[in-house]
Specification:
Layout (H helix, E strand, L loop, with lengths): L2 H14 L2 H11 L2 E2 L3 E6 L8 E11 L2 E17 L4 E13 L1 H4 L4 H15 L4 E13 L11 E12 L9 H16 L10 E2 L9 E2 L1
Antiparallel strand pairs: 1-8, 2-3, 3-4, 3-9, 4-5, 5-7, 6-7
Helix pairs in contact: 4-5
């Protein structure tokens, strides 16, 4: 498909999306985020919901990437029993760990508390949280033996943002809290009162329907 046809297809899908979903996506595109977090729109996964929208982000400080992740917004206008609503947020967050942190037996519980704490710190209402925290270590041998051992943490989670007026959740605040989680996993200090910038996401693709 050439660029013109692809653009027309995206515009058609965006026009067909329900108003609450379009409003939720518009809020994501204009969220205020701390400057160390670089966010871009990416193609959403298929068949998870009738309407989906996806973002990828990386925490970059002094030109070094410290953590990365993906956040996917799902919307089913008919509702979903497991979600207890019509919207769901799904995330993956990854970061390299310092050896002393990787050795902490309570690390998985701490990382999960970072997720719930980031949502609570912004006063966000949500339900049905679920997820996993995985800690992995890599050791190198043979021709790679000069490399130091490395450890990584991976958080996979989902939750249902509570819907406000017009059935629209405060997705901008949920995105900001997710970026707080990314920054915390990356080891950055908490954001100061003015440590935020307006981020307008690339308009390469409209909201997707499947």
């Amino acid at each position: 498909m050439d660029d013109a046809k692809e653009g027309q297809g995206n515009e058609s899908r965006a026009a067909q999306a329900p108003l609450p979903f379009r409003a939720a996506v518009d809020a994501l595109r204009t969220a205020r985020l701390r400057p160390q977090v670089e966010v871009e729109q990416v193609p959403p996964p298929q068949r998870l919901a009738p309407f989906t929208y996806a973002l990828e982000a990386a925490v970059v400080d002094d030109e070094q990437e410290l953590a990365d992740g993906r956040l996917v917004l799902l919307h089913d206008p008919a509702g979903h029993d497991a979600w207890r609503g019509t919207f769901r947020l799904v995330t993956l967050v990854r970061a390299e760990l310092e050896p002393e942190m990787a050795a902490d037996p309570l690390l998985p519980e701490v990382c999960w508390s970072w997720l719930t704490g980031a949502l609570q710190a912004r006063g966000l209402a949500y339900g049905e949280p679920s997820g996993t925290v995985t800690r992995a270590s890599s050791h190198y041998f043979g021709g790679l033996s000069a490399r130091p051992a490395a450890s990584q943490i991976e958080i996979r989670a989902s939750w249902s943002p509570r819907e406000g007026l017009g059935g629209v959740p405060d997705t901008a605040a949920h995105l900001a809290s997710w970026c707080d989680l990314l920054a915390q996993v990356a080891g950055l200090p908490p954001a100061g009162p003015g440590d935020a910038s307006v981020v307008t996401l690339p308009q390469r693709r409209g909201p997707q329907s499947h």
